[in-house]
Amino acid sequence: MEEWFKAKGWEAVLTTGQGGLLGYATTDRADFTPIESLVPLSFKEDIDFVVSLGGDGTVLSTFRQVAPLGLPVLAINTGHMGFLTETYLAHWEDALDRMVRGNYVVEQRSMIRVRAYDGDELFWEALALNEMVLHREPLTSMCHFEIGIGNHAPVDVAADGIIISTPTGSTAYALSAGGTVIEPGIPVFQLVPICPHSMASRALVFANSEKVVITSASQHRLVMVLDGNAGCYIYPEYKLVLERSIYPARFARLRSGEFFNVLREKLGWGLPHISKPTSVELP
Q1: Does residue 254 belong to any structural domain of this protein?
Q2: Coil/strand/helix, residue 255
Q3: Do both 56 and 12 map to the same domain?
């Protein structure tokens, strides 16, 4: 692809998605990395667009690296599901040709900024495009979470864990845990308890302008994971603060209005299930 860009008179700057992979915070806090520091040193704001080669995990890693620059990302699927990708590797030349000609639209999706505090000390932060998951070790052990959303009264949730997802993440872990599918353009987040203790504890959708503060009401160490990648341990004296990020994920789309088609093709949503009789000749 680099040679293809050069033949078109374009300069291609290469980097890996490794810089967007999250590690677990250590007890000495030595590995704290601000969100903006994940931007590759070779990437500047005058870049026209970014090409992500890989599966959904690569797309998630890419946006953690380039979202602060506001760059549109064309995601080319070389992986398995490719729910977040725009096209397949077999069609890369046509896709890139449309990109260099400016024949694409940009779809913005909200991301979550997750910050972990020990008292007033910020010791870990990262961006999530899909979700933040907080659970106890092992996952099957129930614990209690105190959750404050905006100015509403805090609530207590007893469950194996909780998920805070974006609309993009509503088709990922949140859907498997009993959440609802949310169209990506709706400005909301979703709270989904994982195997809740009470039948009344069900998914809650709320405006993404609301700040979420989470503390543990159990005397156990919890594990926080972002986008199925990594995160940090959360002790009872810690708190998590989640907000809509000022940096959206900007997807380069070669077609518009494709969300329902993706649901149908990738998840089988909306497919007809009515058997249609065929004509049979009787003997």
Answers
A1: yes
A2: coil
A3: yes
Torsion-angle region of residue 92: left (phi > 0), alpha (psi -120 to 50) or beta?
Answer: alpha
Name the token pair of 47: 């870049």
Host domain of residue 191: 112-244
Catalytic residues: 56
CA distance 92 to 283: 54
Residue of 157, 161, 162 whose CA lies nearest to 146: 157
Any domain includes 273: no
What is the rounded distance in angstroms from the CA atom of residue 46 to the CA atom of residue 44?
5
* Pair (32, 42) in one structural domain: yes
Q: Indicate the pTM of the whole model.
A: 0.88
What amino acid is encoded at 177 in this protein? A
Round to whole Å and give the CA distance between 135 and 196. 12
Contact 270, 263 (CB under 8 A): yes
pLDDT greater than 70 at residue 1: yes
Nearest-angstrom CA–CA distance, 260 and 271: 11
Specify whether the CB–CB gap between 51 and 91 falls below 8 A. no
**Number of structural domains found in the chain:** 2
Question: What residues does 203 pair with on adjacent strands?
Answer: none
Question: Are residues 17 and 54 in contact, defined by beta-carbon separation less than 8 angstroms?
Answer: yes
Sheet holding 238-244, edge to edge: 121-128, 112-118, 238-244, 212-216, 143-149, 155-159
The total number of residues shown for the chain amounts to 283
Contact 226, 132 (CB under 8 A): yes
Amino acid at 263: L
Residues 41-96: tens digit of each pLDDT: 888 878 999 999 999 999 999 999 999 999 999 999 997 778 899 999 999 999 99
Give the integer Cα–Cα distance in Å for 212 and 151: 10
DSSP of 236-250, one letter per residue? Answer: TTEEEEEEE-SS-EE
5's enclosing H/E stretch is helix 2-7
* H-helix or E-strand spanning residue 123: strand 121-128
